[in-house]
Every structure is written in C-alpha cells, then in structure tokens.
C-alpha cells in the first residue's frame, strides 16, 4: 500500500504528547502515512506572526490536503487571529463533522444509547460576520444562505451517512419563520434526499428538534444544520453524550480537510504524561477513513473501544466503579496498541468496510438561469420622529417608474397604512416602494427615488431591491394587521 | 379587595374544560376577578374572520389589559393567520416568560433539581421576518437588534427575578461572533445588571451555555435571551424538565399581558373530562402575581403542588409507581380546591410574599444622542463572473466624495485585494467604498457612486451605509487574509 502524505502539527500544551500517542497507535495499527510536520500556535504567534501559522505551512497543506492538528494555545491579549477561523476561511472548510457517542457505562452519561453525528455548515449564515449600525437604536447582522453552500453541506451529510453505514439523515431548520433562507435549506435537503433512497430522511423545526435531541438523542443518527444551529447543538450533543474530552471532529473542504480533538491545549496538564489522547485519536480515525485507509481505521477504533471497556483509563475519565487501571498518556497508547486486532464485547464494534471507495461528490448541480426583474425597493430611513402616519403622508408623494409607497414597517411590523397604536417604533424605518402589479423598474428609477427622498430631507441608510424570479416575488411581505 | 377585570377566552378542544377547572380553582383560592369573556379560535376563523378574533375582542383586551387564554384550534388550510403571532404583534408583547420546573419523582425527568425560567425577547432578531433574494444563489434575512427592545427584555428579566425571589440572572448571546448585534445585547445586560446588585448575574456564550443547560439545568435560575436562542432553548428546557404538559407561559407587553398553557387544544381528548388543567392553571398563577394578587397565587400554587405529590393525577401523568388515584379534569380541580391552605411536604412550596407591590419598570433609559457621520457604503452586486480580481480592477476606477474601493468580500470573506484561490465565490458580491481615513461622505456622493457603477453595467442589488458614531466605526471589517 502506498503511503498517504499528511501534514501534522504537534501544537501546544498537551498537544505534543497526545499527538505522539496518536501517531504511535496509527502506525502500529497499520496506517500508511507519509508525515510532513509544520509549526503552528503559540511559538509562531509570539514570533510576530499574527495568524499563528507560517506562510510555508500553507504550502504543505495545499500539497498534502490532509491536516492532523493538535490543539494550540492562543496567546492572551489582542491582535492574535483565531487559527481555526483563518484555516476554515482560507481553505474553504465548509463542513464541520462531529460524532457524539456515549460510552456507557464506562463514561457516565444520562443518554447511554446516544450515537449522533452533527454535520454543521461552516462558512455562511450569520457567521459571514456582516454587521452594520446605521441608527442610534438598531444594529443589523446579515444572515446569508446560498444555494451552492447549502447543497454542498447537505450532499456531504448524505455522502457521509452512506460511507459510514448510517441509516437516517435529519435536517433542522426554522423555515416556518424564515421561509426564504431556512426555506432554501429545507428545500435543498428534500431535493438531495431524493437522490439517496436507501437512507431515511426527515426534517424537524429546530426548536422542537433541539428539545428532542436534548431529551432523547438516541432517536437521531446524522443531523445536518445551518451554521448557527449547528454551533449551538453540536456543543449540546457532545456535552450530553458525556464525552467532550473524548470527541474528535473534522473540518472538510472541497480540497483540504482538517482533523482534530474538540478540546484545547489544557496547559496545566502539559508535560506530565497525563492527558487523554482519545479525542485526537478519534479525529485521526476520521482522517483514515477520509483518505481511504478503512482497515487501519477500523482496527484502531475497535482496539480503542476495547481499551475503554477493559477499564484502562486516563485520570480524566477514571472512576473506581468501572475503571481497572489509571494510566498515563503513553501507557494508554500502549494499551490500545496491545489490543489491535481485538473488538469490544460490550460496546458496539465499528465497521468501516462499507466505506470503501466512496467518493464524496458534493458538487452542486447546475441550476437553470431564472429571469430576474427588479420590481421595487425597500428604502430604510434613519428617522427619529415616531409618527408612522406623518412619515407615510410625506413619502406618498415620492414616485419613480412604476413605484410608489406601498407600506412602512418598523422592526418588520407594518405601521403604515393601518398600523396599531401599540406597536413600539424605533428610529429605523423600512419604506417599501413598488407597484401593486409588480411592474418592473430600472435601477435608474431606484436612483431617482433615492434622489427625491434625499432632497426632501430624509436620511437613507440602506436599500434592498425587490425582485421577481420568473415572475414570482422573492421578498417577504410585511407582518401584522 | 377590589376585583381585577380580566379577559378570558375558553378556546377550542379541551380549552373550555381546562378553563372552567382553572377558574373554579382560582375563585375557591380567593382570587378577585371580574371576568369578561371573548370569543376566539376555530368558530371565529370559520365565520370568515382570518385573524380568529373579533374586532370587539380587542376592545376588551385594551380595557382589561390582562388576557387568560385557553388553547385554540387553527383550522387546516391556508389563509388563517396565527392568533398568537397577531396578538403578540398587535399588543406589543415583548417578553415571553416560561418557567420550566421538574416535579420529580411525581413527574419523571432526568433533571430532578431543575427550576429555570426562560425570558425570551419576543419581537425582534431574525423574527422581524425581513427576507430578500436578489441573486440566484443567495438569500438574505435581516437580524435586527434594537437598544430599546433589548433594554426592555433585560429589565423585565431582572424585575421578574426580584419579584419572584430568584437569585441569579444569566444572559446567553453569541457576541464572540456577532460582536455588534449580540454585543449590544450583552452590553445592555451588563449595564442593567449593575442596577440590581442584590441579584447575581452572568453571561454565557450561547453554544456552551446551551450545552450546560441541557446537561445540568439546575445551575441556572432566570435566563434572558434574544428571540431565536430563546425559541430553541425554551423548548429544550420545557422538554427536559419533563413537564411540557404542565408548563404555563406569559407574554408580556408594556400595556397588556397574556397568560396560557404551552400545549395546544388536544382535540382528541376534548369533551371527555380527561384533560390536565395544570398548564393553564400555572399560567393563571403567573397572571395573579402579575396583577398583584400574590396571596391567592401562593395559596393556589401550593395546593396544586400538594395535589401532585399526593398522587392525584390525570391520565397524562398517571404512573402506578407514584400515583394514588387517576382522576378527570373536574375531580382534579376539586382535589386542588380541597387542598387550599395546605403546602407540599416533599416538593418545595412557593412563596410570592416578596413580590408585593413590585412595579415592573422596563422603560429604556434615554440615551445621549451620538454624532453620526456617513463615511462610506457597501454596494452589493449581482455578478456571475467568478473572478474577484477582474471585478476589483473594474471597480477601482469608481470614486465619489472621499470614497474609493477598499475591499470586496463574498459571503463575508475578503476576496479582493489579496484573496485566496480556495475561497468559494457565489454570485453575490459586497464592494466596500470608503476612504482610508474614514472621511465623511454625503448621500449625494453615495448616489453618484451608484450612478457611475450602474452606468458601467454593474447590477446593484442593495446598499448599506457605513457610519461612524462619535468618530468610531460601527460596521464590521471583512474576514480572512
Ligand atoms: N482547537 C484548538 O486548538 C483549541 C480548542 C479549544 C481551546 N484551545 C486553547 O486551549 C487553551 C486552553 O483552553 P481551556 O483550558 O479553556 O480548555 P482545554 O484546553 O480544553 O482544557 C480544559 C480542561 O479540560 C480538561 N482536558 C482537556 N483536554 C484533556 C485531555 N486530552 N485529557 C485530559 N483532560 C483534558 C482538563 O481538565 P483538568 O485540568 O480539570 O483535568 C483541562 O484543564 C487556550 O489557549 C485555548 O485558546 C484550543
Ligand atoms: N396556544 C395555542 O392555542 C396552541 C398551541 C399549540 C397548538 N395549538 C393547536 O392545538 C391543536 C392541536 O395541536 P397538537 O395536537 O399538535 O398539540 P396539543 O394540542 O398540545 O396536543 C398533543 C397531545 O398532547 C397531549 N396533551 C396536550 N395537552 C394536554 C392536556 N392538557 N392534558 C392531557 N394531555 C394533553 C395529548 O396527548 P394524548 O392524546 O396522547 O393523550 C394531546 O393529544 C392544533 O390546532 C394546534 O394548532 C394551539
């Protein structure tokens, strides 16, 4: 078997110890790896590199396309960029994959049957980080959901489920409220699900789904979610499995993938041969399957499970009622190596046989172009007088192209025409201009409207075009009344 | 004692039975209520009123300002507006309050010590419902957080904690990512917390906080959150307390407040004297404290707890190992009435003595006006060529006032200048125009820029002004690089 080149970073704190233990186990387990080592983390930050990673390290990552990363320490104080955020953005790591498994009774948990994989979109949603404040009272953050971004993460979830022998993919979204953004996520989920008839699929509204996940996680298998829900609920899932210290995760890009433990560098445990290498080891097992070394992955994973159930435990999970021996990092690795070829008796053994020769094709399907027409504009004003009727009267006289004032909302609630006296109004007003029949307008019309409103003394703070796609409006109506 | 006028709706399905049981208990418990009855729900919808509530009902609500509402049935099929959403918007019910309490061992739960109140902002955040699609690939939803809206909900949480003898108020937000929107929420929390030195306060990043809540809810007391997090996590909290069928909730406005059970009208249990009235009863107890009838509230609540621990249970929570008698709705109400004046022995009795004469003042503090300058504009383009450098070259020549092109991002990631080849680009580009030194520009400059970009053949889809407040930029930088 040819060796697969990978890039390894030993990191900070307990990083070097758990990385050494992990690599020792992988090698004894038959993994064929050609290792390039790079320097990241504290030393690099403190040498004056604000990203914590040297330029030549990127070349290694671009060459091997596989990154096994130990935790690092980000120095205290400002000016240091998060290495994880940088890596994710630069390498386009669109999928965050986190298996959350209970190992009861060997690790205590309220949910002994739990075995859930959270697949979290990693690039868009509110995490695009686009925020503006334009009035004294109101701050805005853009939530962006793209069709190709959504399709990639959902395809990834189904490919993953197929490769890892999973039975069901669940989607969480809030499309009863966010009908267009989360609606797109749900719609793409349904489309892609139809291409995987052998896998069960289902959708839950995220609030009820989250309640179910927290209460009876054993009913879920693979769950795919937009970025924010995935951020919150992958932490919930890892925590209630009882195994935050035992969890690994993968960050997958179309070219490059990164594998790690979910915990940090635990500096106060560094250099004492104490740390549990299991989180990083489980991350490295995901890496082995990713690069097609399924047999080694299976051998190592089962030996690790056997070690756990034999009660050979590092300090962090040692519990006199189930543990037989308290060991250090190195001894734990030796115990796993001694069990290579064995399978657990009580815990469920893993099998990666099915995952052979699976290519994770996540390429979005080309979409037929739609006919886009601009039919109006939402003009947002900064305006401190709180009377919507006065504002409506004043704006009614402004027209351009087919457009005239059709409504005013404040925080989304319609306040003109026919608002309610009780509606609380801020200094942030959305004024919608369009024709009743959705006649097209040009951008010159939109400019003329802005010009005339500005000349009348109003302060425009932002605009949003109103469009139709193939004749259908693709903007939300106002709420209330 | 003078009677307090309240408005009551008997609702649909099990509504009339549980309302009758609730009102019988309240009256026997000494509540002084002057009841106006209104018609809402199925009958009203089917009579052709798409809101499910008659116009004269609003008059009653505006008069009494207190609404005790039984669940209703929303007819199947389109065109019917959610009565809860309408009521919330029309009456400005900004706070959703949901106590989540475990009643172990009488109601089974994995979290027997849980006693958490979720206070959820109810009007803004992503739920303002402002969505636009302007390119084929990208859909947008606006997240709006306002200072007065935030201040109202946070003041409410602290006032509630004080009135109900709670010890700690926790805030959840994601301000490490959404530094301006969630940052505002966190900042206002810290400001308001300082006015309540007798109450402990703390802030958690919502992902870690949610994990903690799902795993060890007993460490929390009152938790205040923006709308979306509150929606998800109030469902999680109610579910893991084990008492979805026993939970009540309040929707509080500055004028009017509405009290209800969190469950629905359970039509298949209607008319059979089976339903558990506890959720609505707990809602009505919140109402009694709200209108200052604390003694009656305490008497009724303790009698209800005593009934529960005496094992007098309706079918839904009947469990032979802890229940002594299976009863119907009416008999359950009689059992509570028979225990008025008694206190529970095993469950913790409630006391509302402290809540006397508390006025819930949530009025936002006036803010000193800031000096707002417009210093640039983000112009968003629909553009299907994927080469950021070509786009950058073309836009570099467009200038107005002090503004010229400073960067281009795609889904928030900087792609010009000095982008990375791996960054995945959609058809949605944000082009930032400003001066290095943040020199002010007029809206005429912004119009001139839009004009020149439009004339060059680019399709503008939206704009966002860039502002400084008292000289400080209040817009986020681009990510990456
Ligand atoms: N991906 C990453 O590189 C990453 C992720 C998170 C944090 N960090 C960084 O790590 C540094 C420390 O963060 P932190 O202390 O908050 O979190 P942490 O490193 O995860 O450690 C917190 C505690 O968890 C326990 N723990 C974590 N990993 C363990 C292991 N493998 N074996 C045994 N016990 C383990 C230890 O508890 P006891 O000491 O109580 O035994 C440790 O003190 C910071 O600089 C942070 O920025 C890096
Ligand atoms: N605030 C509201 O007005 C509100 C809220 C939610 C839903 N709804 C409406 O209610 C209707 C029915 O919704 P749904 O069936 O999904 O939910 P649901 O009414 O909450 O009832 C679901 C099931 O929960 C149990 N249940 C709920 N309340 C109970 C009580 N007080 N005592 C005993 N068991 C109770 C029953 O289970 P078993 O039958 O298995 O015993 C019932 O069939 C729909 O029209 C919905 O729109 C109204």
From TrEMBL, chains A, B:
Cite the Isopropylmalate dehydrogenase-like domain residue spans from the record: 5-336
Task: Tell me the keywords, alphabetical order.
Answer: Glyoxylate bypass, Magnesium, Manganese, Metal-binding, NADP, Oxidoreductase, Tricarboxylic acid cycle
Q: Would the keyword Membrane turn up in this protein's UniProt record?
A: no
Q: Name one Pfam family in it.
A: Isocitrate_DH_C_bact
The answer to whether the entry has keyword Metal-binding is: yes
The protein's name: Isocitrate dehydrogenase [NADP]
Q: What does this protein do?
A: Catalyzes the oxidative decarboxylation of isocitrate to 2-oxoglutarate and carbon dioxide with the concomitant reduction of NADP(+).
Native species = Spirosoma sordidisoli
Per the record, the similarity remark reads: Belongs to the isocitrate and isopropylmalate dehydrogenases family.
NCBIfam families, sorted: ICDH_alpha (TIGR02924), PRK09222.1 (NF006673)
Catalysed conversion reaction? D-threo-isocitrate + NADP(+) = 2-oxoglutarate + CO2 + NADPH
| Subunit-level organization | Homodimer.
EC class of this enzyme?
oxidoreductase
What cofactor(s) does the depicted protein rely on? Mg(2+); Mn(2+)
* Enzyme Commission code: 1.1.1.42
């Amino acid at each position: 078997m040819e060796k697969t080149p990978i890039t390894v970073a030993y990191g900070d704190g307990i990083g070097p110890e758990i990385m050494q233990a992990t690599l020792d186990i992988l090698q004894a387990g038959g993994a064929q790896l050609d290792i390039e080592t790079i320097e990241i983390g504290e030393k690099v930050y403190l040498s004056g590199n604000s990203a914590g990673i040297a330029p030549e390290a990127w070349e290694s990552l671009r060459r091997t396309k596989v990154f096994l990363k130990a935790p690092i320490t980000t120095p205290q104080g400002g000016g240091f960029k998060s290495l994880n955020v940088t890596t994710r953005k630069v390498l386009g790591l669109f999928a965050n994959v986190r298996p959350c498994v209970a190992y009861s009774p060997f690790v205590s948990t309220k949910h002994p049957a739990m075995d859930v994989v959270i697949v979290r979109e990693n690039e868009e949603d509110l995490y695009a980080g686009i925020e503006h404040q334009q009035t004294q009272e109101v701050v805005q953050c853009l939530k962006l959901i793209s069709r190709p971004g959504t399709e990639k993460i959902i395809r990834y979830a189904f490919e993953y489920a197929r490769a890892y022998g999973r039975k069901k993919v669940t989607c969480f979204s809030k499309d009863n409220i966010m009908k267009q953004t989360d609606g797109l996520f749900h719609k793409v989920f349904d489309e892609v699900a139809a291409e995987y008839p052998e896998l069960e699929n289902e959708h839950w509204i995220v609030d009820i789904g989250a309640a179910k996940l927290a209460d009876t996680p054993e009913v879920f298998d693979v769950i795919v979610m937009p970025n924010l829900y995935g951020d919150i609920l992958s932490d919930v899932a890892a925590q209630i499995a009882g195994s935050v210290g035992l969890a690994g995760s993968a960050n997958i890009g179309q070219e490059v993938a990164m594998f790690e433990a979910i915990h940090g560098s635990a500096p106060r445990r560094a250099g004492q041969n104490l740390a549990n290498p299991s989180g990083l080891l489980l991350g490295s097992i995901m890496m082995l399957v990713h690069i097609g070394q399924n047999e080694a992955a299976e051998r190592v994973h089962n030996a690790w499970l056997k070690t756990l159930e034999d009660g050979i435990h590092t300090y962090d999970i040692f519990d006199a009622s189930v543990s037989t021996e308290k060991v250090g990092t190195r001894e734990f690795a030796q115990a796993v190596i001694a069990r290579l070829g064995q399978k657990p008796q009580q815990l469920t053994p893993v099998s990666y046989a099915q995952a052979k020769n699976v290519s994770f094709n996540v390429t979005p399907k080309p979409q037929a172009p739609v006919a886009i027409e601009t039919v109006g504009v939402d003009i947002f004003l900064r305006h401190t007088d709180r009377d919507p009727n006065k504002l409506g009267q004043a704006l009614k006289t402004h027209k351009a192209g087919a457009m005239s004032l059709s409504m005013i909302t404040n925080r989304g609630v319609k306040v003109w025409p026919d608002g309610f006296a009780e509606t609380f109004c801020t200094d942030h007003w959305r004024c919608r201009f369009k024709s009743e029949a959705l006649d097209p307008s040009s951008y010159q019309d939109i400019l003329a409207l802005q010009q005339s409103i500005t000349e009348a003394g109003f302060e425009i703070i932002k605009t949003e075009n109103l469009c139709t796609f193939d004749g259908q409006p693709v903007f939300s109506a106002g709420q209330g009344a």
